[in-house]
Each structure stands twice: as structure tokens, then as C-alpha cells.
Amino acid sequence: MSQRRRVARAAFSATAATACLALATPAWASSTIGLKSAHHGKKAGYFTQQCDDERFANLPDDHDGWHFVLPGKNSGSFETLTLTFSDGTNDVTVNIPDGSDAYPDFFYSTGGKDPRQIHAYLFTPAGWKLVDGSATISGTGDDFNVSHTCKGTVPKPTPTPTPSVSESPEPSESPSASESPEPSESPSASESPSTSESPTPSDSASPTTSPSGGTGGGGDLPLTGVAVTGMALTGVALIGGGVALMTLRRRRDRITFTG
């Protein structure tokens, strides 16, 4: 009887151990899941904004805050995350956890009797786009997703280097030299024909006609000229008359003497 009891106890212990191993196996096994497909290629501004999350308290203004969550009761906990972002030029791979890079990250666990590490936080430069991601978990699940974000402000100093290069052409662009044609274009010299065209000299002939009108003070000169001419003609007439009288007298004298 004692041997049967021992055999029964051994069989029961083996069965119990097998059952325990079967139940514990999912907790020990790790699996890899991907990021929810609807969250691929999205920036922080696409998701629900929850900047009042106390775990975003140390988020710099020029960074985006990301909160990833692992749904499902059988999914276990986050072990690692591998995320790919685009900075607008290149793809950047960020691992959680990783204390050696420039992107702060940390896990956050649930409370209770059976805490699970299902929250992951990450800070990236503002404006980065989430391209893809994967996670290693302690249980099984379909995917993980972005719960909410806090959009940062893209720093303005980044475009300042470009103006410094574009400002250098200013001396070469100095349009002051090219615009200098203004003096050459000075139509004042070319348009000066207005003085040559000015018929004012030709119109000045009108004043010549004005003296003929005799309305101005110059009208006295024509009157003086007429008086001198009349006197000259009168003098010539008198001289001619005198000569004629002398000629007639001589003829009379000759006739008288002859007779």
C-alpha cells in the first residue's frame, strides 16, 4: 500500500509540475510585434495632444513627446522597442531603452499586485516623423500603438545658416552699379531739344512785328525817320528850284543882251 501511495504521489507531483510549467511558459517566452499600421508615417501633431501628462514635465519646448502603450492582457510587458523616424532628410533609428543616445526614454509600469511594463516614453526633436517600429514583449500580442503625444516647436535657428550664405551675394548683386545708367538715361540732356525746338526764338519775330504796330515806346523812332526824310526832300526841292531860277535868269540876260 505504501508503494502505491508513493507512486500516486509521484504521479501527482509530476502532473502538477507539468501544469505549472505549461502555465509559466508564456511568461518566459518573448515575442516580437510591430507598430500599428495606422500610425506609420505620422508626426506628433497627428495624435491626441496631452501635454499635461506629468511624465512630459521635463520635455524641452523644441522636442516632441511620444507615449507608446502595449494593449492586451496576454501581451506581458515591454522589453525593448526599436523605432524608426525621419528627420526630413535621413532615417534615424532609436532604441528603448538606450541611455547612450541623445533621445531621452524610459518605461513606466502599472501598479497593483501584478505590475506590467506596458508604457514607453520617448523625446525626439520636434517635427520628426514616425516611420515604423517593432517591440519585443514578454507575452503575446498583435501590435503596439501610440497612446498620445505632446507636439513641440520646431526651432527657428535651423534656417538661419542659409540666409548667411544667401546674404553673401548682396555685394555682387549691387544693383547700384547696374542701375547707374540713370545718369546716362538722363533724358534731361536728350530731351533738351525742347530748347532747340523751342520756337521761342522764331516766335520772337512777333516782337519784330510789334514795333510796326507802334504801340510800344519804340514807335518814336519811325516818326523821327519820316521827319528827316521830308526835310531832305524839301531841301533837294529848294536847291532844284534855285538852280532852275538861276538858269532862267541867265537866259533872260542873254536875250536882253542880244537884243
In terms of topology, how is this protein built?
Blueprint: H1 2-28, E1 31-35, E2 42-43, E3 63-69, E4 78-86, E5 91-96, E6 105-108, E7 119-125, E8 129-137, E9 143-150, H2 161-167, H3 169-172, H4 175-178, H5 181-184, H6 187-190, H7 193-197, H8 200-203, H9 205-213, H10 220-258
Parallel strand pairs: 1-9
Antiparallel strand pairs: 1-8, 2-8, 3-7, 3-9, 4-5, 4-8, 6-7
Signal peptide: 1-29
Keywords: Membrane, Signal, Transmembrane, Transmembrane helix
Biased composition (Low complexity): 163-212
What does the model show?
Helices cover 41% and strands 22% of the residues. It is α+β, with helices and mostly antiparallel strands and 259 residues long. Strands 1, 2, 3, 4, 5, 6, 7, 8 and 9 form a 9-stranded mixed beta sheet that branches. The model is unreliable at 10-14, 16-27 and 185-223 (pLDDT under 50).
Give the fraction of residues assigned to helices: 40-55%
Low-confidence stretches: 10-14, 16-27, 185-223
Give me the strand/helix succession.
HEEEEEEEEEHHHHHHHHH
Query: Outline, from the CA principal axes?
Result: rod-shaped
- Sheet of most strands: 9 strands, mixed
**How far is it from the N-terminal to the C-terminal residue, by CA?**
232 Å
Share of β-strand residues? 15-25%
Please tally the β strands and state the result. Answer: 9
Mean pLDDT over all positions? 75
Radius of gyration: 61 Å
Protein name: LPXTG cell wall anchor domain-containing protein
Keywords: Membrane, Signal, Transmembrane, Transmembrane helix
InterPro entries: TAT_signal
